[in-house]
Amino acid sequence: MSVSIEFQIAGLVYTLILCAAFFRKVKWDSVQNRIYKVLLLVTVAVLTLDIASVISIDHRDTVPLLNAFLSKAYIVVMDLFIYTIDLYAISCATNRKLSPVMKKIKTGVIALISSMTLVAIIFSIINTLYYSGYGRRIYSYGPPSDLTYVFSTFSVAFVIFILLLNVRHMRIAQLFSILSFCIMEGVIAIVQMFNKELLLVGFGSAATVFIMYFTVENPDAQTINRLSHANKRARELIRFFTTSSGTRKSVDIASTTTKIFPNVCVMVFDIVDFLKFSNRMGIERLSKYLSAFFEKVDSAADSFKVEKFKNFGSFYCALSGAPEENPASASEMVHFAIEVLNILKKTNAQNGMNLQIKIGIASGPLVVDLVSNQNLIYNICGQPTLTAEILRGNASPNSIHVSESVYAQLNDTYDFTEAEDLEVEGGGTIKNWQLDIGGGDKSIV
Fold first, then answer.
1. Partner of 196 for a Cys bridge, out of 139, 161, 162, 191, CB 3.0 to 4.6 A?
2. Does pTM top 0.90 for this prediction?
3. Residue 48, beta-bridge partner list
4. Angle of the 143-166 helix axis to the 100-126 helix axis, nearest 10
């Protein structure tokens, strides 16, 4: 080739293949996936303009205006690529329930990065860009290029800073993908600083999104992980119901086996005025709506240490702490309950509806009976299930009411408001507290 564009062409080819693989698959509707979708398109633009600008620089004497446009457009899109990476890092680091203070900080950080990106773009457009060489030793230089290097260096430092502040809240896959960007950008910046004609920046951008796809954003890998996770839980459930010698019992409907779990957190919720909505909307339309809603709830359960126990009609029951024992079952379940309310809010907005749910959460010892090890049919029995159902029945719409045991475990982490004691049929009362959802997680502040 008369110009050095082999790296860019290779990067563009497998980025286009990556786009085809990503966009034709069913994807989780997460903030990270939406940002990654934009990042893929920006990367294609970066590589396309990189190739076009290299060719135009080699012919800049004959097409000066076109060359100036393509070269600056490449720098502008490169700034947008860096900006999108920053947004991705912020979204990964704050992918949890935030307190009002943290929400304001997040908004301020995004506003700062957005302002810096806008300044960098305007600066690149109004300042002169210079060019050197012909043939295979072509590159551009000048204030716009220098500012892009500075902006890229700042972004690497910014991403590392965000990572260090939030490392305990992030998954290993997210950390790996963000670190890959930092390492890639750092190495490329150093190499190209001393060998400007290598033109590695576009290829580095393609390599970054390629690594992200296989660590965080690959929908196929996520589906496989979900299935593997479900299979693991199923195996653990059977493992808990074994004989003392360790051999699995052959059980059927007529022969059950039992295990007691000392600290299980149970959550139940139901749609408010389900029959009224059913009569108004029609059962077919409402069923379609609820199917989409519960599918998202099931996907969210996979992100927590939560086991769906039962779902019929508008009723949903989930466990944490069985069949896999979990000392933090109460905290895990409250996180999940908050996410369920967020899913309901988004689903309502997307469908122009106003369905509401009531959530009750209780914890304590629970007896689990395995009825069939072939289809993993099991029953649960214990005070937490009864208490959670009572709390749900007396909760306010779109609120989370917890039992005294859950409150005792989480009152230092969350804000609660003590609710009125509930009378229990046959005598006695149940103390309960309503979670202050707007208060957020105290440990994050």
1. 139
2. no
3. none
4. 170
